[in-house]
Amino acid sequence: MLFMIIAHDKPNSTAIRMTTRPAHLEYLASAGDRIKVAGPILSPGEDPKPIGSMIIIDAASEGAVQLFAENDPYASAGLFENVEIRHWKAALGDWVPAQG
């Protein structure tokens, strides 16, 4: 099943994000092809800054996704103000299997 992790950074936490980013990226890479897409949520305006994260992950259960999110180095460093986990269904995209 596909799930979406939406995590919003705490205010004024850019330093935590930048310091922890290499460990976060390594953690995501360790999940292999279970991560379908991931990246920062950006602030509006002409000079966007990271203000959160969005990850689409393939997992057996919501509990497995919760555990994955809790073990993310960003979460361990206290970066996030809140985290949402939602079921998600892929409809279009190069990596989405053809519907037949």
Please explain how this structure is put together.
- The chain is an alpha+beta fold.
- The protein has one domain: Alpha-Beta Plaits.
- Helices cover 30% and strands 34% of the residues.
- It has three helices and four strands, in the order E-H-E-E-H-H-E.
- The chain has a four-stranded antiparallel sheet with strand order 2-3-1-4, covered by helices on one side.
- A hairpin with a 7-residue loop joins strand 2 and strand 3.
CATH hierarchy: architecture: 2-Layer Sandwich
- Given the C-alpha coordinates, what overall shape results? globular
Strand fraction? 25-35%
Largest sheet: 4 strands, antiparallel
SSE run: EHEEHHE
User: Unreliable segments (pLDDT under 50, ≥5 consecutive)?
Assistant: none
- Placed side by side, the strands forming the largest sheet appear as 2-3-1-4
The average pLDDT value, as a whole number, equals 94
Q: What is the helix content?
A: 25-40%
Query: Going by CATH, what is the homologous superfamily?
Result: Dimeric alpha+beta barrel
How far apart, in Å, are the first and last alpha carbons?
18 Å
* CATH class membership: Alpha Beta
- Overall structural class, as computed from helix and strand content, comes to alpha+beta
Enumerate how many helices there are, as a single number: 3
According to CATH, the fold-level topology is Alpha-Beta Plaits
Radius of gyration over all CA atoms, rounded: 14 Å
Number of strands: 4
Structurally, the number of domains stands at: 1
